[in-house]
Amino acid sequence: MKSRNIKTRLAAFGLALLMGLSPLGNLADVHAAEREISQKAVTEKESKTESEHPVSEISEQTVTAEDITKDVSDKEFMAETCMEGIQYDPEKEDVTLDHIEAEDGSAYHPDQAGTYIATYWVVPKDARDSYSVTRKIILTDSEGQAHAEENGGQKQKEDTKSEEDSETPVQEITEVEVTVSGEDADAQAARELEEKIEDGEVMMFSGVENTFTARETVHLEKGETIYYPSYIGNYLTCWFTVNGKIAYCLESHRSSPPSGDYVAQVLDSNKNLQKVLYYGYGGAGDITGSYLSGKSAEEKYVYTHIAASYAYAGEAGFTGCKYEDLVKAGVIAYIDHLFAMEEPPKGEISLSKTSVKAVRDGNVQKTPDITLSGDHRNYISVNVPKDITIYNKTKGTSAENGALKIYGGDTFYLTAPMLHTRTYSSGELHGSVGETWRTLVLSTGNSNQDIGVFESEKANPVSFTVDWLEMTRIELLKKDADTKNPLDGAVYGIYTDSKCVHLLMEMPATGEDGKAVSDYFEAAIKTVYVKEIKAPDNYTQSDVIHKVDVEAGKTVTITATDERVKGAVHIKKIDKETQDFLPQGDSSLAGAVYGLYAREDIVHPDGKTGVLFKKDSLIAQGVIKENGTLDFSELYLGKMYVKEITPPEGYTVDPTEYEVDLAYEGQEVAEVTRDLTVQEQVKKQAFQLIKISEDGDQTETELVEGAGFKVYLVSNLSKVKSGELQPSHGDQFTAEDFRGYDFSKEEVAVTYVDGKAVPVPELITDKKGYAISPELPYGLYVVEESTVPENLKAIDPFLVKVDEDSREPMVWRVFDDRPFEFLLKIVKKDAQTGNPVLKAGASYKIFDMEKEEYVEQTVFYPKKETISIFKTNEEGYLVTPEELKCSTYRIEEVKAPEGFVRQGYEMSLYEGQTVISPLEVTEKGSYKENAKEGIVITVSSDTAHQIDPDTGAVIVEIEQPNDEQVGSLTLTKTGEQPVEVKGDSLLAKAKRLAGKIKDAVTGEDTDTGVFHDFVYEESGVEGATFELYAKDTIYSPDGAKNEQGNPVIRYEKSRGLGDVYKRQFHDFVYEESGVEGATFELYAKDTIYAPDGAKDEQGNPVIRYEKDDLVATLVTDKEGKAVVNNLPLGSYYLKETVAGDHFVLNPEQKEFTLTAKDDTQAVVYEGVAYKNERQKISISVEKKDAVTEEKLEGVIFGLYAKEDILSQQGEVLVEKDTLLEKKATDENGQLTFDSDLYHGKYYVKEEVRKPGYLPNEEIWEVDASYTDQNLAEIKLTKEVENQPTESQFTKTDATTGEELEGAKLQIIDKEGNIVEEWISTKEPHVVYGLPEGTYILHEELPPYVEGYVSAEDIEFEVKEDGSVTKVEMKDDYSKVEISKTDITTGEELKGAKLQILNKEGEILEEWVTDGKPHLVEKLPVGEELTLREITAPEGYEIAEDVKFTLEDTMEVQKVEMKDARTPETPGVPQTGDNRWKPILLFAPLGASAIGLIATLIYKKKHGKIEKTDEAKKEE
Question: Tens digits of per-residue pLDDT, 313-322?
Answer without folding.
Answer: 898 889 999 9
